[in-house]
Amino acid sequence: MSEANPRTVDPWRFTGGFLKGVLSSRIPESPSYDPIPWAPVAKPLADSKLALLSTAGLSMKGDRPFDMDFERKNPTRGDPSWRALRADASSGSVEANHLHIDTGYIARDLNVALPLDRARELVAEGRLGALADTHYSTMGYQGNDTTSQQEQSAPEIADRMRSEEVDLALLAPV
């Protein structure tokens, strides 16, 4: 959270001043967005249901993969749609379709992009109440045009989470 407003996420918090300057100077002009609201946890973690959201372009094998042809034709952005992932997802049942990341790491250990095993451990230890039946993935590399994700994908994912009575969503950015 930023020091100016304790309920706003500071995207540069962990980068340090020098790295913030280097990275922010190389990011192309983008539309301005309202500050990301900070939502406090409403109940103890041990009583909460968690859903994971990955930006690695994950899909269940046999489901429609993310559109890598679109990504090849538009190298500054990726497929803006989303995919549902089952709670029993594993490295053997999930594939990653994303040209902007090394998907080999995900093939070897799904937890680098979707930390389901770590979340299951927290449930088994009683530190987390439950995992949602469904987790989600998007393709995180969208360049300057996030309209489809903001106006379609994000609301659809949020609606699904509400219908499953999810209390917490954990973003696993890749």
Kindly list the characteristics that best describe this protein.
alpha/beta, 28% helix, 174 residues, 5 helices, five-stranded mixed sheet, two-stranded antiparallel sheet, 2 domains
* Mean residue pLDDT: 86
Helix content: 25-40%
Radius of gyration: 17 Å
Can you tell me the number of structural domains?
2
Distance from N terminus to C terminus (CA atoms, Å) equals: 20 Å
Count of helical segments?
A: 5
Tell me the quaternary state: single chain
List the helices and strands and how they pair.
Elements: H1 16-26, E1 49-54, E2 58-60, H2 68-73, E3 82-86, E4 94-96, H3 104-108, H4 116-124, E5 130-131, E6 134-138, H5 147-163, E7 168-172
Structure summarized in a few sentences:
With 174 residues, the chain is of the alpha/beta class. The protein is 28% helix and 17% strand. The strands form two sheets. Strands 1, 3, 5, 6 and 7 form a five-stranded mixed β-sheet that branches.
Kindly describe this structure.
Strands 1, 3, 5, 6 and 7 form a 5-stranded mixed sheet that branches. The protein has a two-stranded antiparallel sheet with strand order 2-4. The protein has 174 residues and is of the alpha/beta class. The model has no long low-confidence stretch (mean pLDDT 86). The chain folds into 2 domains: 1-38, no CATH class; 45-172, no CATH class. The protein has helices spanning 16-26, 68-73, 104-108, 116-124, 147-163; strands at 49-54, 58-60, 82-86, 94-96, 130-131, 134-138, 168-172.
